[in-house]
Amino acid sequence: MTNSAETIMIIGAGIAGIHAAEALRNEEYEGRIVLIDRDTELPYDRPPLSKEFMLGESTETDIALHTQENLEELQIDLKLGVEIVLIDSEKQSAVLSDGETINWDKLLLTTGSSLRRLPIQGSDLEGVHYLKTLSDAKAIRGNLDDIQQIAIVGAGFIGAELASSFKKLGKEVTLLERAPLPLAHILGDEMGEYFLQMHQAEGVEAIMEDTVVQFNGETQVEEVLTEKGKTIPCQAVIVGVGVIPNTALLDKELQIDRGYIVNEFGETSLPNVYAAGDCAMWPFLGNNIHIEHWDHAINHGKCVAKNMLGGEQTSYSTVPYFWSDQYDYRLQYFGHTKNWETTVLRGNVEDKEFSYFYLNKSNVIEAALLVNQPKNALAVRRLINQQKPVVPELLPNTDIKLKECMYVEVD
Question: How many domains does the structure of the chain reveal?
Fold first, then answer.
């Protein structure tokens, strides 16, 4: 039984924050829950913004996570359109931009991340967009009827998903990326080349190893100029060049390395202060990592919320996972690795259905990419969780079940 006079304050009403608040109520927390966000929209799901919502296949109602009535039933005190002016960690209080002061017993930071901006000439022209919020998506979608040519700066997952969505809408799409291959820093050169060819086969003009230096136009963007002298005509630009975790709150008091550093329970370096989701760096397989995806935000938010209630602590050890829908491809990535030793392909890339494994020097699977193979998801997650060696020579053989590819010691 919790103290009904207690207050837990959650800063950030995104995926991690709203699921943390729900988890507190599901765990029968009876105290006050204050959920604060500078956005003015009720909590909503972000992944559809670049796909179903952009295509007009889903509405604001479809992507809403809760109605006002739901939140009232859960007794979640949601404060929208306000920011935190000051947090006093010793007095355990916070001052809001509307002048209100809230005293808290425990604080959860789910502040998410902010988009990196391109500080170049023409950035203020009409038609230059970034996609992070529902209002961003509505601004882009509201002008699509008057747009035929779209330039996308950045070939990460958001940029790639938008390229797919815009092609489905019959637009001419140019994808610009300063790296030699899209997504190679995550998936490696072989898969980077695969995804480059995938987009080119769908009619996307892909310009690699070039940098945007200027947007041209009088009041409306009309063209993009690159460092290598290319000029790309367009009526809209979408910039997706990465994010920066929001760590301004308590940044002088908390340990930060890209995100707020937390332990396996979600605790920061300050007592009674926790962090979860995009803004946190958390331990996974011996390293602190930072994940910016939907599945992680939900699971981390729930786990940390439960730990805030005291009692038996639960280590957060969920295998990182994200997915991306592009054209007729369902891409699923499990695990986390940047320094794999070898890769193994299982299946045939020409069939548009395969698995691609990333192994360390001990032949342990650290990560895996599944392309149109959701049936393998559970087995792959288990293999990564077990952290035991596999026999690389067996992995490519689709007649052998994945669980039978484990290395077995013989006495």
Answer: 3
Domain-located, residue 346: yes
**Residue 275 has which token pair?**
């962090």
Supply the CATH number for residue 338's domain: 3.30.390.30
Confidence at residue 411, expressed as pLDDT on a 0 to 100 scale: 44
Query: Which tokens go with 92?
Result: 């355990």
CB atoms within 10 A of CB 409: 5
Question: What pLDDT, on a 0 to 100 scale, did the predictor assign at position 3?
Answer: 60
Contact indicator for 79, 94 with CB cutoff of 8 Å: no
* Residues near 49 by beta carbon (within 8 Å), at least 6 away in sequence: 63, 131, 133, 134, 136, 137
| Chain segment 138-173, per-residue pLDDT in tens | 999 998 999 999 999 999 999 999 999 999 999 999
Name the pTM for this structure: 0.91
Contacts of 405 (CB under 8 A, 6+ apart): 383, 390, 391, 394, 395
Same domain, 65 and 130: no
Measured torsion, CA atoms of residues 272, 277, 282, 285, in degrees rounded to the nearest 10: 140
Percent of the chain exceeding pLDDT 90 equals: 86
Q: Tokens 């602190």 label which residue?
A: 288
pLDDT at position 338, please? Answer: 84
Q: Give the start-end residues of each E strand in 205-320.
A: 205-208, 212-216, 223-226, 231-233, 236-239, 243-245, 256-257, 259-261, 273-275, 280-284, 287-289
Rounded Cα gap, residues 88 and 35, in angstroms: 18
Domain co-membership, 210 together with 292: no
Identify the domain boundary among 239, 255, 288.
239
The list of the chain residues with pLDDT below 50 reads 1, 410-411
Helix (H, G, I), strand (E, B) or coil at 143: coil
Calpha distance 394→406 (Å, rounded): 9
Fill in the amino acid letter for 92. Q
Tokens 């005509």, located at residue: 233
Q: What is the dihedral of CA 76, 67, 325, 279, to 10 degrees?
A: -20
Same domain, 252 and 349: no
For 137, the domain range is 117-239
Is the separation of the CB atoms in 89 and 253 below 8 Å? yes
Residue 210 burial by Cβ neighbours in a 10 Å radius (0-12, 13-18, 19+)? middle
Give the C-alpha separation, 287 to 235, whole Å.
44
